[in-house]
Amino acid sequence: MLRAVKDHCLTPEQAQELTAYAKQVYYPNRSYRQLLNSSVVKGWPQDQMARLEHYFLTKSRDLKRLDAIGLLRYYAGRDTRQPGRRKSRGIHNSFQADGSWGWDYVRLLLGGFMNSHGVVTLEQVLNGANRDPALVKTMLPILSKRYFLLQWARQHKVACPKDVLTSFIQHWEKEHQIRDRTRWLHASGLTQRTYGMLLAERALIHWMTTQGQSHFGLKRSFVLEWARQNGVSFTPGCLDSSIEPTEQALEEWIVKQGPRYFGLGWSFEVALLREVQITGRAADLMEKGEAK
Questions:
Q1: What is the dihedral of CA 272, 128, 280, 45, to 10 degrees?
Q2: Fewer CB in 10 Å around end: N or C, the chain?
Q3: CB 200 within 8 A of CB 165
């Protein structure tokens, strides 16, 4: 409740009312749904009730569920045939054995939003996106390359100029017909903070690629410069014998391997989920019944 007050979703008085109500409920029956159905909340204005429901949906944490998922993921990541050795992970596995990075992934999937069919979780949205082979095939190299560009920018502390960012956001919202930002964010399962972060990244990438590498004093692409500065080069057998080891072939190989191959904390599934959210396709997936 204190967090809801801090986030200006509840007043201190409302938080006290809900806390007092929760204390009267037998602890196994305590839940966010129970609070929403309480006589306390039912007496509030409709918009306040809707705001609290969205807040619980996007910010609440089911700690017992997180613990259970974390435990299962931990043991799933262990190689029982060779004690002490971890299983190899593909690009689609977003969890670390110690759970340090995986928790964020789990919490992300527990988020969601409301649509005409009721509560939608981001896990449902992701499942819907993954059931579109064409989307996955198209976006994998695009999202992988974007991450390498962002890595190069972070290493060199390159930031998008404020006026460029402002112009980009205006153009983005016009292109995607975002007239009511708050409603659009709710329909996509995004918070204002995440929305701003994702657009800032896209604006930076768009600005970098529009300016070109020569603007930054580079003779090679951003991906190849990232590779050079991080000691990445061709290794024996990494390319098919029929492929000439050119710089273009090296860049394509790096992008195909993906950031996790080089030890970077990246998840294609998270990136794909963010892609369908920021482009507004998350709501479309659910409205069309593609994700169930």
A1: -120
A2: C
A3: yes
Q: If 0-12 CB within 10 Å is exposed, 13-18 middle and 19+ buried, where does residue 223 land?
A: buried
Pair 19, 1: CB distance under 8 Å: yes
Report the distance separating Cα 235 and Cα 261, nearest Å.
Answer: 13
Please tell me the pTM assigned to this model: 0.63
The answer to whether 109 and 123 have CB atoms below 8 angstroms apart is: yes
Calpha distance 128→209 (Å, rounded): 30
Which phi and psi angles does 172 have, rounded to 5°? Answer: -60, -45
Using CA of residue 261, residue 267, residue 269, residue 274, what is the dihedral sign?
negative
The rounded average pLDDT for each run of 10 residues, N- to C-terminus, in the chain (292 residues) is 72 83 70 80 82 69 52 48 39 40 56 61 79 90 97 94 96 94 85 92 97 95 94 68 74 92 88 90 64 48
The backbone torsions φ and ψ at residue 116, rounded to the nearest 5 degrees and listed phi first, read: -65, -15
Cα 105 from Cα 95, distance rounded (Å): 8
Residue with tokens 């930076």: 204
